[in-house]
Amino acid sequence: MAKKAKRTLKPGMESASRWTVRGVAVPLQRAASETARAEGKTLGQWLSEVVEAALADAPSRLPAATAAGWREAIEARLERLEGVVGIDAQRAAAESTAAVAN
Length: 102
Prior knowledge:
Radius of gyration: 28 Å
Mean pLDDT: 78
Oligomer: single chain
Structural class: mainly alpha
Number of domains: 2
Shape: elongated
């Protein structure tokens, strides 16, 4: 009996294992296959792009502690920026007053 040829991995693939998705309606399977073929891609390439795009559009699911940390960091930066803007506004008002006086 002949040995199976070892599969070579394409860039971005971490293993040669197959991924089976159950429960996808046959019309959706056909539509996905036809769309991939029309775009000159394999079904795997097309699905990877679709899933990646969907995940990029999905809201972040950060743990609450991480989200709280980000919120605190954003609020601190906002306070610093508001301080800088306040200083610039005071400076602009002073310069405007000085220009009118001259």
